[in-house]
Amino acid sequence: MGNFLAGKVVAVTGAGRGIGRAVAIAAAAEGARVVVNDYGVSVDGGEPSSEVAESVVKEIEAAGGQAVAVADDISTMAGGQRIVDTALARYGRIDGVVCVAGILRERMLFNMSEEEWDPVVATHLKGTFTVFRAASAVMRKQDGGGTLIGFTSGNHQGSVAQANYSAAKGGIISLVRSAALGLHKYGVTANAVAPVARTRMSANVPMELKEIGEPEDVAALVVYLLSDRARKERITGQVYTVAGPKIAVWAQPRELRAGYAEGPWTPERIADFLPGTVGTDPMPMLAQLEEMAAAAAAKARPNA
Ligand SMILES: NC(=O)c1ccc[n+]([C@@H]2O[C@H](COP(=O)([O-])OP(=O)(O)OC[C@H]3O[C@@H](n4cnc5c(N)ncnc54)[C@H](O)[C@@H]3O)[C@@H](O)[C@H]2O)c1
């Protein structure tokens, strides 16, 4: 056992399986007392069970750590509040929250139903809000502030068949940046992690992932972000990818190129001016898609 997080109290959502479980176990192994939240659902969000959260608590206790289970649904305000209330009642404070819980309901946009959109956005985006909301209300008043961590995905750039997931993951980045800005003066930091790791969720990805690692790689980055070492470096408002041996930081969104009119804009003036002056910023994922389509077409023509 290390002491990277000695004395800290950390809550992790979706901590019953996959990346969340690895984060909870690593945080406990580094000395944190951990609230292990998991609603215990299938990849698409059905069939809840309280057993998954409890079994991770048992694992942590067996290794000599301290943990408590909360099997609530974090897409409800009461669920987010219960996680923070449990930390306070059991351990007296809350230093870090890590919102890992997530589900998938894949469908092309033109076929997507409300039942596929709403629960995915509610679990990821609202489920990060409910916990950030309850935790930040305590952290802004407590000595030492606190750390908020959201989970996003490379798919925040866009997704062919997961518009619901991609929209929620983009929303999480904006929520994290808003938390970083709004809580800066209270000593609370907020960052997002975009992982690539072998879990039951990534097993559903239709294409082969070139860069992928284990949940433990992601857990190491999260433990660092929760630690005083990261707080000393003033790391806040950042998005990090971790994929096996690679850690990358994402750019902040910013205006790329601007042009100014001398008189009022008209559609005609814009049509003459925009393409050559302001232009576009090509989508890397669209280029990838076109490359894949070209490779598939070349394979379909055996003599090409
Ligand atoms: N695995 C990857 O490569 C990858 C890539 C990009 C993003 N992510 C993100 O990382 C996070 C973890 O993914 P994973 O691969 O470990 O998935 P996973 O399916 O293994 O684990 C997700 C856990 O969240 C729990 N959960 C779902 N809905 C919940 C709710 N309403 N309340 C509480 N718990 C709930 C599930 O029961 C499950 O145990 C997710 O946010 C996912 O979108 C993962």
Description:
There is one protein chain. 41% of the residues are buried. α4 links the parallel β4 and β5. It is built from nine helices and eight strands. The model has no long low-confidence stretch (mean pLDDT 96). With 304 residues, it is an alpha/beta fold. Strands 3-2-1-4-5-6-7-8 form an eight-stranded mixed beta sheet, sandwiched between helices. The N and C termini lie far apart (59 Å). 43% of the residues lie in helices and 14% in strands. Bound molecules: nicotinamide-adenine-dinucleotide (NAD). Residues 13-14, 16-20, 37-41, 43, 45, 52, 73-75, 100-103, 123, 127, 151, 153, 195-197, 199-202 line the site of nicotinamide-adenine-dinucleotide.
Give the secondary structure arrangement, pairings included:
Layout: E1 9-13, H1 18-29, E2 33-37, H2 51-62, E3 66-70, H3 77-91, E4 96-99, H4 114-139, E5 146-151, H5 163-183, E6 188-195, H6 215-226, H7 228-232, E7 239-243, E8 246-249, H8 267-277, H9 284-300
Parallel strand pairs: 1-2, 1-4, 2-3, 4-5, 5-6, 6-7
Antiparallel strand pairs: 7-8
Bound molecules: nicotinamide-adenine-dinucleotide.
Shape by Cα distribution: globular
Number of helices: 9
Instruction: Name the average pLDDT.
Output: 96
The main sheet comes to: 8 strands, mixed
> What is the ordering of alpha helices and beta strands?
EHEHEHEHEHEHHEEHH
Structural class: alpha/beta
- Helix percent band: 40-55%
Main features:
9 helices; binds nicotinamide-adenine-dinucleotide; 8-stranded mixed sheet; 8 strands; alpha/beta; 304 residues
